[in-house]
Amino acid sequence: MAEEEDYASSSDMEEEDMSGFYLSDREEDVLEETVLQGLESQCEEDCHWSVSSVITKESLLAAQKEDLRKVMELLALSEQHARTLLIYYRWDVERIFELLEQKGKERLFSEAGVTIIDKNRATDLLNSSQSVNCNICFEDVSQNAVTEMDCGHSYCNDCWTEHFIVKINDGQSRRIRCMAPKCNAVCDEAIVRTLVSARHPDIADRFDRFLLESYIEDNNKVKWCPSIPHCGNAIRVEGDICCEVECTCGIQFCFSCLSEAHSPCSCQMWELWTKKCQDESETVNWMTVNTKPCPKCHKPVEKNGGCNLVACICGQAFCWLCGGATGRDHTWSNIAGHSCGRFKEDIAKRTERARRDLYRYMHYHNRYKAHTDSLNQESNLKESIQEKISVSESKQSKIKDYSWVTNGLYRLFRSRRVLSYSYPFAFYMFGDELFKDEMTPQERDLKQNLFEDQQQQLEANVEKLSMFLEKEFQTFSDDEVMHTMSHVINLSDVVDKLCKQMYQCIENELLYPLQRATHNIAPYKSKGLERATELSVCWDSDQSLRSMKNNNEGSCARWDLTVNVNGRHSGSRFPGSSSSDESGCSSSTRKRPRRDVAGGAAPFDLNMPPEVIDNGRY
Amino acid sequence: MLDVSRVQKELADCNKDKAISGVSIDLHGGDGDLSHLAGTISGPVGTPYEGGTFRIDVRLPSGYPFEPPKMQFVTKVWHPNISSQNGAICLDILKDQWSPALTLKTALLSLQALLSAPEPDDPQDAVVAQQYLRDYPMFVATARYWTETFAKRASVGIEEKVQKLVEMGFPEALVRSTLDSVNGDENMALEKLCSG
């Protein structure tokens, strides 16, 4: 294919021409140059990376086994002690090892409530026929109805059971402490399970579930998918947790704030923005400043000129200054029979400000809305384009491959989203609300110009891409199709590059210099949002629960269970965990560069012209 | 369900040495309801609360002793960790630090300790805490005044009350002990005497 040779031969071209403003009437060779640049820039990966996986009800236990195993092996702990430790330190294994260095084993354990039983002490048990007084119910009970915890405190089984039930019902399953005053030890989960299930099996089941779900609830790297109705999945992210992911249920969301994916808006901006859009607070604001409610029908009335006697459309006249109902008999300076102590504030100034704020908001909101609407309309394109493709493919033509259309369409969706969210971003970036004191007006103008230039370029190219994709290419001649194809491919690439540039500009030029800006923005990914892949496990949940129940103290050997983690389970980045390398669990996929993983996950490679992919050059 | 036998044992145990410990606890009403109790603590020596007797309303939840008792000052008291408005108490062992191995007596003793050692950094009553930190002498004066006004009134004129009740036909010794047990509250004593 001729084109391919062009790509290869022009590999020495420079990337300096980053104007990115693509004009459709340029020469063809310029177009190809742009395509090429796209290929090269493909090689540079973002420094941000994150890999996400879906945790289902079935794989929940398997998902946490790796963390448990690491802690068990390195600290020579039983599974339940490892769990207690992990729950306390929010499943942050690296932090546990860090603290181990800093604090030492003893303090690390005692703070988390882990007590390792002193085997010597256990020998001086009293004769089982002897009865002892339980310190809780004050009753004499026989020695064999008494249970001693690892911390050395013993009470009668009835009291323990009651205590456990109260705590479980109170939602404190994950940290049921010993009953002794000021004792920080966490109770042995096996004892809790045994005692509670003897009386209330359902509560014991709940206890198990709470323990299992701690991996999601008490873990910064795992979160429930926010879908409604809930799909039952949780997502685990490794690497940078400031990212956007897609669950297998199809929903895309921001992992940090769990609302819809909103980059390049920061979470805080997005929260403010949605709130603002919801209560239209600007409109309300303008109305409070510019209108007064009619004393009769309570409609807001705006004064559009004239004197201070205002008449509502309902016929009621009232005094504009105090809002009180009056008669209609008046002069320019007073209203008959009405006098209010007139205290004039700088109403004009306030009005001016409110009006300006409102117009500003409307400007950004209209554009945000326009792009969101376009995105919705364009999603309908998906089907019509599929039809066009099948028509084209059945035609007698030398062009057989139409993947450029679908690739272009996905690029359009992706960039359309970026574009629409860039407006609320700009609203806050250059508004008074967040960064007023952080930039001088001059700085702000400079930055705003810089950003808006990029935004305008992106916008122009996105629209152009949209235009080409809507063409009725199935009716075109081969030459026309080729023409459209090259435009779509090039525009896709330009648009992708512009998106990337915009994110870079935001990070490096806009936000980075600001001192107090704590706005983390999920990085741009050419290939679209990270699709979480499922952890696949070779057992069912019942089995997994059972294994948990059977897990007795000290039995670290439950790890022979086969866990196929799909090559994604990368708890491998552990400086100190060399011993875990023998596990065989995921060692074969370790140290694999991330791109392979991500590439495998995405059904479309949005950047590559299809020919290139077909020729296996990727 | 409330552990009745434990509560009864606690009551007996607590009142055994009340003269020494300075804390006591009794049923609140005459109907034998074990979930509603009335505690008293005497103000610790060497504090602005010295000489006062403070009544505490004690309610036991059904999960007691696995859930903490609910305690509240009935006698008005000027203290950073006790609300001057409603007597609510800010004390960790009455909340998340409660342990079933603690008892009503230990809880009351902790309250007594709280009177001797306020923790203004974790206040229940911000106004009092502010005063405690900024103008300590003023705080002491106010606390002492409140003790005089609200925590000692019961003992003033105890003889009149005794006489009044004796005139109603109750034996003097019983009247004195009953008045003592309800901390000098005339109406409660009468109620108690009537219920036998």
Spell out the key features of this protein:
heterodimer; A: 618 residues; Herpes Virus-1; three-stranded mixed beta sheet; 19 helices; 16 strands; 48% helix; extended; disordered C terminus; B: 196 residues; alpha+beta; Ubiquitin Conjugating Enzyme; 2 domains; globular
Account of the protein in words:
Chain A is an alpha+beta fold and 618 residues long. Chain A has a domain of 144 residues: Zinc/RING finger domain, C3HC4 (zinc finger) (Herpes Virus-1). Chain A is built from 19 helices and 16 strands. In chain A, the strands form 6 sheets. Chain A has a 4-stranded mixed β-sheet. The N terminus and C terminus of chain A are likely disordered. Chain B is an alpha+beta fold and 196 residues long. Chain B folds into 2 domains: 148 residues, Ubiquitin Conjugating Enzyme; 38 residues. In chain B, 43% of the residues lie in helices and 12% in strands. Chain B contains 8 helices and 4 strands. A 4-stranded antiparallel β-sheet of chain B has the order 1-2-3-4. In chain B, a hairpin with an 8-residue loop joins β1 and β2. In chain B, α4 packs across α5 and α7 crosses α8. Chain B is globular, with a radius of gyration of 17 Å. Chains A and B meet through α7 of A and α1 of B.
